[in-house]
Amino acid sequence: QVQLVESGGGLVQAGGSLGLSCAASGRTFSRYAMGWFRQAPGKERDFVAGINWSDGSTYYAQSVKGRFTISRDNAKNTVYLRMNSLKPEDTAIYYCAADPNVLSLSSAYWGQGTQVTVSS
């Protein structure tokens, strides 16, 4: 059974930092694109950051570029998201996703999500 399990969410003040982890199990994800999406209350789920399997290249939503860093450890089947300079508008449920091709809202695998709350 394939599972993506996020951890590391929580409550932080504006300007602070948090780190999220997504541990994958059930198959090897070294050849999958992996990344993060988020969904704020009353809003649609949006892409945050992704990382390719082939060359480790990364890509970010404009709203988080320069503040968030995505990385992966293929040996551990884990992807990480380091979030710095957090803003109240970063408050959302953060979801890990994996896909053999391109990350999108139709990605093949999803985690259950972890709450990130940034207080002003």
Keywords:
7-stranded mixed sheet; mainly beta; 0% helix; 4-stranded antiparallel sheet; 120 residues; single chain; 52% strand
Concise overview:
With 120 residues, the protein is an all-beta fold. It contains no helices and 11 strands. It is globular.
Shape descriptor = globular
**Mean pLDDT over the residues:** 95
Strand portion, in percent?
Answer: over 45%
One letter per element, helices H and strands E, the order comes to EEEEEEEEEEE
- What ranges have pLDDT less than 50 throughout 5 or more consecutive residues? none
Helical content (DSSP H or I, runs of 4+): under 10%
Major sheet summary line: 7 strands, mixed
Radius of gyration over all CA atoms, rounded: 13 Å
Count of extended strands: 11
Q: Compute the separation of the termini in Å.
A: 40 Å
Tally of individual helices: 0
Helix and strand content put the structural class at mainly beta
Descriptive overview:
With 120 residues, this protein is an all-beta fold. The protein has strands spanning 3-7, 10-13, 18-25, 33-39, 45-51, 58-60, 68-73, 78-83, 92-99, 109-110, 114-119. The strands form two sheets. Strands 2, 4, 5, 6, 9, 10 and 11 form a seven-stranded mixed sheet that branches. Strands 1-3-8-7 form a four-stranded antiparallel sheet, with no helix packed on it. Strand 4 (33-39) and strand 5 form a beta hairpin.
